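Data card: per-record layout.
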Amino acid sequence: MRRRARIYTLLLPAMFIGGFLGAEGYATLTRSSVPLLPLFGLSVDRAALDPTDAFRSALAEVETRFYGIPPAIDKLTYTSIDGMLAAIGDPYTRFMDPDAFRRMQEDTTGSFTGIGALLEDAPGGARIVRPLPDSPAFKAGLKAGDIIIAVDGKSLERVALDEAVRMIRGPRHTEVRLTIRRNGVDEPFTVTIRRDVVESPTVDVYLEDSENKIYRIWLQNFSEKAPALLDRALNEIKQNGARALILDLRANPGGLLDSSIEVASRFIPEGQVVVSVVGRHGLLERRSTLKGRYRNLNIPTVVLMDGGSASASEIVAGALRDHKVAPLIGVDSFGKGLVQTVIPTSRNTAVAITTAKYLTPNGTDLNAKIVDGKRVGGLKPDIEVKNPEDWRMTEEDKARDLQLKKALEVLREKLQVTRQGDGTLRAHHGTGVNR
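The structure for this 435-residue chain is written out next.
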C-alpha cells in the first residue's frame, strides 16, 4: 500500500482508455457507416485526440446530444471502467462502485447491516442456507431452505446473488419486504424485516463425538475477526479435553491474506513458510508463521474442504498438509490462487487488480486452469469423499454428510477407539458469505 498514490495516479488515464474502446467497439457493430460528427457541422480532428480526451469528448457528446435523458455521469463512467477491466479477461480484476466497495469492507471487517442469513443461488431467487442465531431473519421465522423470490416487490428471477444481497442489505432500522417460497406451503408469502447490525458468522464449534472428545471447528471466513474467534474456540475445546479436531473449511470463500497467515500460525510452528507470493517478475515474498501464535495442540487433526473452499481457505489447507499437520478430506477445492490488491480510486470506489499468485510451501499452484473447457486445479484431497449433490451444510442434513463421517472414521482410527459418541453444537463464536 506504500505505492497507492502512484498507482492511483496511473490508473485514471487507463480506466478512461478502456471504457472508450469498449464503447467504440460496440458502436462499430451497431451503427451505419455514415460519419456522424460532420452531420452536426463539427470539424473535429479525431486523430489529434488522445484516448483520455476521446473519452471526455464522447461523454460530453452523449450528455449534450442524446435525444433522451442520459444516465448519470457516474453510471456512464463506472460502466466505462467495467468495460476496460472486462478486456483484461480476468474474472477477479474488477471495479467496485460505492455499494460494492462498502460490501467488501463489511465482509472483511466481519459485520454489516442486513437480515442475517446465509444465502446461496437457487432457481428463481436466493435460498437461505440458514438464518443466523438471534438475527432479524431468525426472529422473523425464516428457515433453512426458504427461497427469497422478491425483495420489496422486485422479482429475483434474473438477478445475480450479489445484486440480491445489495437489495436485501440497507441502513440499520429500515425495513425490507421479502417474498418467500417455502416447501410445503402452497403459495408464496411476504415477510417484513427490520434490518440491524449483524455479526458475520465466523466460527462454530461442534462436539461431534462426545465419547471420544472429537471436536469440529467450522471456520466460515477469513475476516479480521477470524483469528481471535478461532482462539476462543481452541481455548474451549482444550478446556473440555479435546482429543482430536476437524478443521472444517467447506463453503469458506476466503478473505484476508493476513488472516490466513494468523490462522495457519495456530497449527504450524513459528517461522515455517505458509505461502509463497509470485508476481509477474517472479517471487515477491514468502509469508511465514508468526511469533507467539502456535498453539501446539498435539492432537490428531484433519481438514475438510469442498468446491466452495477458496483463496485463504486453500492457503491454510495447503500449508497444513505440506507441513504434515493434517490430511485433506473431501473434494477438489475451488482453485482461486490469485492475489487481488484493492486500490481506492476515489473516496468511495476502488479497483481490485490481480497482482500475483499463491503457491503452497511445497510449490503447488493453487489456481485452477481451464482445460478443454473444464475447470481443472485447486487442491486435491488426500482422501476423496463426495457428498450427495442435494446435500446442504445444515444441522438438519448432517446425517447425509459423508465427508464428516469419513473425518470421524479417520480420527477414531488415529485414536484407536471403536465406540462412537453423539454429536452436538457446542457454541457460536461470531455470527461465509453473509447477508
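Known properties of this structure: The longest strand covers residues 350-359. The chain is about 30% helix and 25% strand.

See the next section for split statistics.
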